[in-house]
Amino acid sequence: MSLTDMQRIVSDARCQPLQPGDFADSPLSIALRQPTLLGLFLPFHHGGWSASSLPRTTDWSFDYNAALALQAEALGFDLLFGFSNWQPKGGTGPTRTEQGLDAFIAASALAAITHKIMLISTIHVLYGPWHPIHLARFGATLDHVAKGRWGINVVTGHRAYEHELFGWSQIEHDERYERADELLRTLERLWFEEEPFSYASSRGTWRFKDAYISPRPRFGRPVLVNATGSDAGISFAARHSDIVFIASPGGGDIDSALGSLPTHTARVKAAARQEGRSVRTLLNPTLIVRETDREANAYAQAIVDHADLVALSGRKNLRSDAHAWRGHKHDDLRFGVGGAIGGNVQLIGSPETVTSQLLQLKEAGVDGFQLSFYDFAPDLAFFGERVLPLMKQVGLRH
What we know:
Blueprint lengths: L2 H12 L12 H5 L5 E6 L19 H13 L4 E4 L20 H7 L8 E7 L7 H15 L3 E6 L4 H6 L7 H20 L4 E4 L6 E5 L11 E5 L3 H10 L2 E4 L7 H21 L5 E4 L1 E5 L3 H13 L3 H8 L28 E5 L1 H13 L4 E6 L2 H18 L5
Parallel strand pairs: 1-2, 1-12, 2-3, 3-4, 4-7, 7-8, 8-9, 9-12, 10-11, 10-12
Antiparallel strand pairs: 5-6
Helix pairs in contact: 3-13, 5-7, 7-8, 8-9, 9-12, 12-13
InterPro entries: Luciferase-like_dom (IPR011251), Luciferase-like_sf (IPR036661), SsuD_RutA_monooxygenase (IPR050172)
Keywords: Flavoprotein, FMN, Monooxygenase, Oxidoreductase
Protein name: FMNH2-dependent dimethyl sulfone monooxygenase
């Protein structure tokens, strides 16, 4: 039976084509055999997730990120993401936000130098707007280059200035997901229809005639990811995504995360089950790990003491209608996405302490961790040497 025939059968049965997880030999299926997914959030922009001037090696250059990618792959990581940033000029020194790489292009370039790790390109799919034929063609090509290891982190854009950057007023929150839903449904058709077809978007933003995309993605379609905390976003994820980026609804400290995540992760997974699907949840913690809790907390405090107040103030003042981070303490320099330390949750302590925290988060319904660090290269090496073996001991990794 051909791949197209298989896709047709599944499409008729559940109104959607085969997905990467339906193939036992797909990179996604192989990764999901791990008890916990493990990814690295590459610092494609200066400073990565952290707004602090404490000296470090972290750099936005492609060479630096390529070395991190190879380091993560050697450690057995499953995923690589890059932060996508349209932020205007702001901050000082090492946290100047205008310096950085495009996440789509940079992640794509890594396909040529990596061999096993999945590469997820963060793309704001409504900016432009993207024409589905462009995105389907680019995606199919990258799937071919990466041998099925490429995917899209679908972002609709929650900051008003980004929409204004592209020449219009901010699109209302739920409407963004309606537009993204139509785009994703069209992309899936372009990736599996065996005959050319024509289509016009319901809002008249794009149309095409007799479209046919080749080569076809190797495992049905590329891996799909989205980050969300809203009803509309969770509904979108339930219909389309393989992996759902989540934030702790209660805040970025470990106690708040453990208190709020069980209900939240259960809600996300229940929404997918209602669509006849399953999803995995992925959390983005920043890890500050040293040999002892005391050393780790001292280092974390040093990062906060060197906070880039200009950058933090600028980020705080950007209008956003995102739901996922509403419980985070944006006035506390330690907390909040993109703060002095950064990350959706901050894990600070010895290798034993951080491993215990990861295990507790797993028990709270988190299926994987997309890690970020303050000083990426040495901190990733320390993680591989001291934390990863403990994760294997407690059953978080094979």
